[in-house]
Amino acid sequence: MHRYALSILFVLISIAASGAIYFPSYWIHRYDTLIERQARVYRLDEKLVWSIIYEETYFRAWKVGSAGEIGLMQVTPAVAREWARETGLKELERQAADDVIALLTDPERNIQVGCWYLEKIRERYRGLPAETAMTLSAYNAGPSRVNEWSADADTSILSEADFVSRIAIPSTRSYVTSILERYRTAQLVR
């Protein structure tokens, strides 16, 4: 009996050790296909979208932020309603009005709306040296803050590092820096 218990214990330890090794990889890459598809639709780099989701929620689709942001990309209900209106599809408008939480906790829909919004923000900064940092700052703190932080600078020559140093909200500066580092080193599973 003792030998049987030891065998079972060994098997359980082996399973737990395997899970500890392989589960994190599954966890952070389980939405890669959705991310890739939606990023392509909105002409975004999927590594950037993946890095934002990593930072925002660590791939927890059910997460609700302190300011009411919902889902993987922490999309606000107001952004979801704006997106639904712009699609022109009455069913999506109805769903965004009736149950925006259900809409935004659906991983595919959340990534779709988040990518739409990210691209909409990026349009303001396209082609600027600090485009990515400015886009991330606007995604986190709003475009008016980006305007504030770059008001006295020539944005056509403002470097990414210089822009990041101008970010006056420490949590936003940390957010942008963290995402930029992860984005530049991200390896997505194919």
Please give the structural blueprint.
Blueprint: H1 2-29, H2 32-41, H3 46-57, H4 77-87, H5 90-98, H6 100-105, H7 107-122, H8 131-141, H9 143-149, H10 160-166, H11 170-185
Helix pairs in contact: 2-3, 2-7, 3-11, 4-5, 7-8, 8-9, 8-11
**Helix percentage:** over 70%
Query: What structural class is derived from the secondary structure elements?
Result: mainly alpha
End-to-end Cα distance? 46 Å
How would a crystallographer describe the biggest sheet?
none
User: CATH fold name of the largest domain, please?
Assistant: Lysozyme
The count of DSSP E runs of length 2 or more, i.e. the number of strands, is 0
Identify low-pLDDT runs: none
Q: How would you describe the shape?
A: globular
- Tally of separate domains: 2
* The CATH class of the largest domain: Mainly Alpha
Overview of the structural elements:
The chain is mainly alpha-helical and 190 residues long. The protein has 2 domains: 33-123, Orthogonal Bundle (Lysozyme); 125-190, no CATH class. Helix content is 70%, strand content 0%. Helix 2 (32-41) runs parallel beside helix 7 (107-122), helix 3 packs across helix 11 and helix 8 packs across helix 9 (143-149).
Defining key terms:
Lysozyme; 2 domains; 11 helices; mainly alpha; 0% strand; 190 residues
Short description:
With 190 residues, the protein is an all-alpha fold.
